[in-house]
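Re-run requested by the PI after the first attempt was lost when the workstation crashed. Everything re-entered from the original request form. Ligand of interest: flavin mononucleotide.
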Amino acid sequence: MDYRQAVRERHSVRDYLDRPIEEDIIANIKDKVNELNKISGLHIQFVTDEAKAFGGLIAHYGAFPGVKNYFVLIGKDDESLEEKCGYYGQKLVLLCQTLGLNTCWVALTYKKVKSAYTIDKGEKLCLVIAVGYGKTQGVAHKTKAPDKISDVKRDDPEWYKMGVEGALLAPTALNQQKFFIQRRGQEVNIKAQKGPYTKVDLGIVKCNFEVMAGEGNFSFIE
Ligand SMILES: Cc1cc2nc3c(=O)[nH]c(=O)nc-3n(C[C@H](O)[C@H](O)[C@H](O)COP(=O)(O)O)c2cc1C
């Protein structure tokens, strides 16, 4: 499965099989985490075989049954943190999808198990992403129309239409899709609107847009 297919086939999964992730796949994911941390300066950690964060034995509201693996998105506590976590976190989500794993971004309904990861001085835990083998592959979310979230027109270049499609397939908090995309030639601007976690959403949307549009076809501008 390539990354474009991963964008199209990814859906949030909240119910997981009790199946451990194979050692070679864990090693592959950890290599990617290291690579992305180097590029971004983030301190993302991949926690495996840890059942407490998602409810353990007691089923309660927001429990994700069976989750024992998750990414913890941590970084320097500055104003770029949320968008960066969205962008680099989504790269990991798409990698997991290509490896046959399922995921779900989780902002609220998890417990902080501080012994499972390290938060250095000046850093902040932004949110987590549940990872594992899902009982299902999830379902496609309801989506806004392309002209409600972008200036896309019928005779626009194919790469732009693909990028907008990628943006609409992106996971967003509460499925809010609160962003707007505009193009001038080969320059693309994506703005977050007001709402909870819209800066994280913006990073996720930029990642999906880039995968579908093809990196060489455009550049993002502020
Ligand atoms: C930043 C962010 C936070 C999220 N937080 C939660 C959460 O706390 N609990 C949950 O069940 N889903 C959460 N989600 C998943 C969204 O509800 C889901 O992505 C959205 O409904 C779209 O569905 P899809 O991911 O299947 O395309 C979150 C998604 C994002 C992007």
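Saved to the shared folder this time. The chain has a mean pLDDT of 96.
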